[in-house]
Task: structure prediction
Amino acid sequence: MKKKADFIAIVDKAINIFELAIAVLIMIVVLIKLYDSGAEVAGISTMLGAVEFDWVLSTAFSLVIGLEFVRMLCKHTPETVIDVLLFATARHLVLSHDGDISKVLGVVAIAGLFAVKRYLIGTGGGRCLCGRESDAAGDHRLDDR
Result:
């Protein structure tokens, strides 16, 4: 059992590193697009416009959702399931070009997921509305039920 916990800890640290790397890459692309926008306003032609920001966001969201899915498979907690659903819903909101009703429903879905995470699952230790004790990190294991 100790080996499994150690392996899960290593996987969790690796996922955190990958997520940080994705965040740094997105920041670099944002800075490139900022420079490109400033150059366009000044009338300077640059070759940086070839970076498709929608493609970068789509790829980054897909990678993060995949990483969160791996975390969910390792940890088996309701929090990780909610996190995967939050990222998937956010990806749809940011990248889709659907109508206003779809956007509003997406925002309501995200608010509902946050409410479930906060009031039904609970965070920060103590008791949540489900009546179970959570540990200091607020974790409930799915296989404990």
